[in-house]
Amino acid sequence: MSVLFEVQNAYVSYGSTEIVHGVSLSLERGELCAFLGLNGSGKTTLLRAVCGLIPMNGQVFVDGRSLKEMNERERARHLSFIPQTSSPIQGKTVMEVILMGANPYLGLLESPKGEHYRAAKTALKRLEIGDFADRHFHQLSQGQKQLVILARTLVQNSPVMLMDEPDSALDFCNRHMVLEKIRSVVKSEGKAGLITLHDPNFAMAYCDRLLLLKKGIVIAEADMRTAAEDEVREKLSMIYGKIELFSYTGGYLMGKSQ
Amino acid sequence: MNNKTSKLPQTIMFVAVIGFLIFTAVISICVGQYSISPEEIAQIITGGLKGEMSYKVFFTLRLPRVLMAVMAGIGLGIAGSVYQTIFKNPLASPDIIGVAPGANLGAAIAIVFMGASTVAMVSGAFTGGIAVVILVMLLVRVLPGNTTATYVLAGIVMSSVSKAFIMILKFFADPANELAAIEFWTMGSFASVTSRKVITIFPIFFFSLAGLILLRRQIELMSLNEDECRMLGVRLSQIRITILALSTLMVASIISITGLISFIGLIAPHIARMMLKRNNFAATAMSGLIGAVVMVISDTLARCVYSAEIPISILTTFIGVPVLVYFMYQQKENLL
After folding, report:
1. Which of A241, B63, B261, B315 could make an S-S bridge to B188, C-beta 3.0–4.6 Å?
2. Per-position b or e across A226-243, b if 16+ CB within 10 A of its CB
3. Which domain holds residue B15?
């Protein structure tokens, strides 16, 4: 496996307050990795800094190329971002929303062409929402909206996918559905996925690796493919305090103990 | 509820509105103190009636005036729609970043200090509008945040400053002539439109309109949150400045000739969105056409409902409001 995505010594500040104090991480092709941490641990700040949305000290590499040398357009071909909830998009069809993903490949004044429409249709079929193309985006449910945004990311076709709690507005079933699709896209397309999540149970169920963030540093890391139950319990308790971990077929469930 | 896109194809609506625009434009050419019949218009276009009164009226008065009304409607309608999209604010209108107060100040300076000559007023209004928007952009540069909201705030600040200067000028202006002229300018009129003025501003108008049409995809992307927009590869600061510059040029070129025209830039985009039930660039184009229709009708009425010409803003408001209210009553969902 080859390293596809690398962050080296990321320091991020808001004004004079440093929020993230030197985080380094690397992701391989086909790996889905979760950022876990409590509110204010710096998950979202780090993610936004890595995206280049806020300034940071440190380096970010995609496929060996530094993101700092790239402008927005070039960066968008290497890195995509799914926010907690998408912008309020009114009066546009699903197709129009998905085609926005083709922007980094189009000249400033160019319009999407046949190949982009084909890519959009393939993305819709891939996520099993092939019949959505002509529907109005704002009439979809939250879960369906996130799938459409995921489809837009597929058209954007960047090797690295960053996601900031893409499940936060979803109900239990939609959460499983969306995370399952994200995992399957990362695996089948050989992308590197970094996702921040609130619920450790979902992270354990869908991610290959957990990065545990506390007060702006990665305090521990658990590889769900190899870690033993005790190791997972010990590491999760570094963030969540006293916990119980139960194993069931194919995974673990965490509960808070008194 | 109908989940699919509007059944009545967009093309039919566009053809209908363009047809109606041509119809109103022809009527507008016919109507006035000296009336021209549609047959005469046909003869003039095919090269007849040279040297006759109707020929002169057609070319020196009516045609430039109707063309200017169409251009003004298209320009203000499209600029309004673009502003509402990129500022993500249904109340944004073309003057949100200070172009109108700036033009107003420029015109007022021309009236008070430069003897209110045509050249002085047109160039004063144009430079005033552009200058204030440039100041807004400079202000945004020195402020820490560089978001769209910063532009709105800077626009409000510079508009207020311009208005204060206008008040100073009004206070010292001669009430009989200068004050009246300043006031009259803010109500807008097509009465002073000449073919020379139209030809002078046409290149600027056309250049900025073409630029906005070419940048349509970027304008649509700017309706997203700023983070999302940048992550889709939009070079936000450059694109935003370009779009604001183009629309400012367009609005300034129009209002430097006509004076302030209220309401069109605000309502035309809403009517267009409600008609098409969409919020995309087709709606922006439709907004331009709606603006043109309302403008041509308003200008026609301005010169025939009363013995003296009525300022255009009065009519654009009285015609625009019922149309807007009708569409608001009809609509089932909020499209912005």
Report:
1. B261
2. ebeeeebbebbbebbeee
3. 10-330
